[in-house]
Amino acid sequence: MNRIFAVIVGIVGLLVAGIASAAEPFRIGALFSITGPASFLGEPEKNTLEMLVKDANARGGIGGRKLELVVYDTQGDVTKAVQLANKLIKNDKVSVIVGPSTTGETMAVIPLAEKEKIPLISCAAGIKITDPVKKWVFKTPANDHVAAEKILIQAARLKQKSLAIITVSDGFGSSGREQLKALAGQKGFRIVADEVYGPKDTDMTAQLTKIKAAKPDAVICWGTNPGPALIARNMKQLGIKVPLYMSHGVASKKFIELAGADAAEGIMLPAGKLAIFDKLPKNDPQYKLLKSYDESYRKAYGVEASTFGGYAYDSFLLISGAMKKGTSPQQIRDGLEQTRKLVSVSGIFTMSPSDHNGLDLSAFEMVRVTKGDWELIK
To answer: What pTM value is reported for the model?
Structure first.
C-alpha cells in the first residue's frame, strides 16, 4: 500500500510540475542600443518589441502561453553587449535573444550564443553575421550585399561607371565596403576613390576633397547616422554635384532631418518597403502588414514606425512561428530554420539550413529623397 501511495504521489508531483512549467511565461531576451550613438536603431526596436509582447499577452499569449520580455540597453558598446547577453542566458534564463542592434555587437555576442546554444536573432545587417551560417544565429535585416547590389543596379541604369566609396570604420561599414568592392569588380565598375571615416568623426571634408579630385560618376556612402548626414552636408558645402547613394543604414526620416532637406535632396538609397508603404500597390503582399504596423506604432508612440523597429517586429513574427514547433531553445532554433514564406516588415522570409537570413533583392526598393520625403524610383 505504501509503495502504491508513493507512486501516486510521484505521478501527482510530475503532473503538478508539468502544469507549473506549462504556466510559466516564455521568456524573450533583447539587447538593443537604446541610448548612445545607435539609439535611432535601438529605441524603435525596443518600442516595437514591447508593443508586440503587450498586445500578444492581452490576447492570451502565443498558444495560450504568456510572454515575458527582458530588455537591456547595450548603449552600442561591444563589451557591454557580451556582458548583458551572458546575464540574459545565465541569470534571466531566456529561451531566445533578439538583437543586438549593430553588426559589431552581434559579432561579439555570437560565440556566446553558439556556446550556450541559445538562438540569437540579430537586428544588424552585416553579412558576416549569417555567412558562413552559424547554427544558433539568425538575422532579420537583409544582407548588406543585397543592398549593395541594389545600388549598383541603379548605377548601371544611370550609366555611372566610375564610383567613389566612403565607408564608416565599424563592423557595418567594413562589411559594406567589402561587398561594394567585390560586387563593383564583378559588374564592371571602377572604384576611383576608397575613403574611410570614423564613427565619431564630425567632419569628412578631407576625404571628400580627395573624392572630388577623383571625378567619380557617383559617390556611395555606407554607414549609419550621424556620419552619413554629415557627409551629405559636407558634399553640399564642397560643391560636389555628382549623385550620392546611401546604404540602407539610413533608411529612416531621421536621416533627412539630420542632413537637412536641402543637403539630402536627390540622394538615392535602398530602403525596406515600410519607408514607402503608402506608395506601394495595395495588392503588394506586405502592404497590409506594413500599414497595420505603422498605425499601431503611431498610436502607441506618436511617431511613424521605422525600418529599424521593423527588424524587431520581424524577430517577433519569427519567434511566434517557431513556437508552434515547441518552446525549448532547440525547438525555437529548429522552428526558425524551417520558416517558409513568412510575410514580414523587411520582406518575405524563407530560411534554410544554408540561409539564416532568408531575404533576397525583393526586400528593398530604391528610393530618392525629394522635397524632404521618400520618392519611389521606378
So the answer is: 0.83
